[in-house]
Amino acid sequence: MKTDSTQVVIIGGGPSGLLLSQLLHRAGVETLVLERQSRAHVLGRIRAGVLETGLVGLLRKAGVSARMDQQGAVHHGFHIAHQGRLDRIDLDARTDGQSVMVYGQTEVTRDLYDARDRMGGVVLHGVEDVRLCNLTNGQPHVLFRHAGAAHRVDATFIVGADGFHGVSRKSIPEGVLREYEKLYPFGWLGVLSETRPVQSELIYARHDRGFALCSMRNPKLSRYYIQVPLSERADAWSDAAFWEELRRRLPEGVADQIETGPSIEKSIAPLRSFVAEPMRYGALFLAGDAAHIVPPTGAKGLNLAASDIHYLHQGLIDYFLQNDSTGLDGYSERALARVWKAERFSWWMTCLLHQFPDMSPADLRLQQAELDYLFSSDAAQTVLAENYVGLPY
Ligand code: APR
Ligand code: PHB
Q: How far is the CA of 219 from the centre of ligand 1 (A)?
């Protein structure tokens, strides 16, 4: 058994774990990141790409914003397509000048890995059998296997940034952990194609046939989604069938502008709302998808991870540099307050735009009335806009 020690062990080398490691390293706090997959596998994941102002600020603070500033696009609004027309949500006007940055999560993760390399940050890939030990009795440590050898790392704190399927949340005893979950009766079939995005801003579409979303990664890389039943399989959808269904869900003036092309990625993601409480247990702190999942409709997944990391990195720095544990003691309550508001918004936007199998004619009319009210009320659009750009940390 090889033993070592560090100040903070971070389980998970996704965006949450990497961003926290980078911010702590720059403040002089030592970390070790343990990642199950290879770097190539992590960077092969296709995820959303709408960054809130708060996340953009954290990436700047972490020193990883150069490529985002060059290749990202600042978006000052987005559109909702309904009843055959496009209505725009003016983020600038509704939020006193706030906007969002469109820049793929994969690129954020790549920038974080590059920054970790430049700083000599330690990220171990191919880690197996991670076990969290002694979380509440004074000698927290992590056991794991790496490169065929057994390891033990003692740490002051352990951060579970290992996603929804990770080991960290499951290390909190059943009598302590509370889980809240809402499953949606449909998924999103997503396609990535090397085509010109149909519009310069995102289009969220409500249609009787189901939800659709027109997004992008850059001026030559489009990302489209259509709502599909959970029984669907991605490989059962030809590209032609996808493009045809997408067009049917968009206003004519938009559908006939769609540039089609071969899909370079095609997958179905289920939709779920999930929150685990508390986000701290002894020396263990949960962050990102390890603690919560949102339906992708509001593009809050990575942005919620960011606010967790904002609170947690400050609390850890205060502890190690000022011997002040106030931030850590208040982390779970503070993070969860923002998590639940984002869960509410993501649930609301999902209900606004998707067709649910059990919707009655009355439900359909009420859903349309919600949209009619939205676009007849400055106040309603302000509520949507302030949640979309991100509530304050
Ligand atoms: N040991 C080590 N690493 C693990 C383990 C484990 N037992 N279990 C999972 N991991 C790794 C995964 O391989 C993954 O790389 O933890 C990482 C968790 O990363 P994400 O799932 O991307 O979660 P997070 O970093 O919180 O990022 C949240 O990702 O899923 C999207 O929508 C979500 O945009 C949001 C973002
Ligand atoms: C994406 O570009 O993948 C995307 C954009 C906005 C969303 C969800 C996904 O709400």
A: 28
